[in-house]
Amino acid sequence: MPILSKGRTSTTLLSVENLTVKLGGHTALTDINMSINKGEIVTIVGPNGSGKSTLLCAIVGAVKSTKGTIKKAPALRIGYVPQKLHIDATLPMTVARFMRLPNQHDTATVNETLGLVGLYDIEGQQMTTLSGGQFQRVLLARAILHKPDLLILDEATQGLDQLGSATFYRLIETLRSKLGCAILMVSHELHVVMSASDRVICLNGHVCCHGTPDIVASTPEYRALFGTGTQGALALYRHDHNHSHDHDACDHTHHEKA
Q1: Would you list the DSSP string of 21-44?
Q2: Quick check: helix, strand or coil at residue 126?
Q3: Are 209 and 219 in contact (CB under 8 A)?
Q4: Which of 62, 111, 180, 231 is most buried as measured by Cβ atoms within 10 A of its Cβ?
Q5: Those residues with Cβ within 8 angstroms of residue 254's Cβ, 6 or more apart along the chain or in another chain
Q6: What is the rounded CA–CA span in Å between residue 67 and residue 50?
Q7: Which CATH number fits domain 12-255: 3.40.50.300, 1.20.120.1460, 3.30.10.20, 3.40.120.10?
Q8: What is the pLDDT of residues 128-137, one digit of tens each?
Q9: Is the pLDDT of residue 189 over 90?
Q10: Is the pLDDT of residue 53 over 60?
């Protein structure tokens, strides 16, 4: 079980045991074992078609498992940022209205939460007029309205440039600190997520390797999938901690309606 930081004990929020998922006769995941502990950032990486999004969907209950179990801590609150979300351009919907769907939240709570992600005075703006970065931050704000214990992000930076992605991941680290939540995210941006993660799980239908970023990047399995160049290495961004770790280590399109 990973150690989080000095003076803090590890608390398991969610564990996946021997999970197998079949979709349309195809085995997407085989015997997946993993856990998420309080306050840590865990990133899932892997090539296209490796089952990353399927694993997240199984965790949130959108996909049924064929075998295995997913155990959650009692009363676990989960926030989820989908890979894609389409809003009809002809549908009038302000940021404030979007934030209040499906449950009503008071104006103060909505504004406070938008402020946490660096958005101010945009409550009356139409969702369809937001920039890509603003749109993703609104999705993130909605996901943290209920102060989740676990925040799950499925390639939440799709469509953002490199600087926008790096800024978004720095925001994720800040939210982890402010909210005390654990974060489980899927990303293809290896150079960024390796710098933002406590642990990395390399997936290719099964768990190829897992551990701290340094450990995973040095494994033959990881190098076989991503190579040893700058796209898969830690040379550009290195993640330094003042605490220790245990080294043992569906295209989902969502539609909102008024």
Answers
A1: EEETTEEEEEEEEEEEETT-EEEE
A2: strand
A3: yes
A4: 111
A5: 82, 84, 85, 86
A6: 18
A7: 3.40.50.300
A8: 999 988 999 9
A9: no
A10: yes
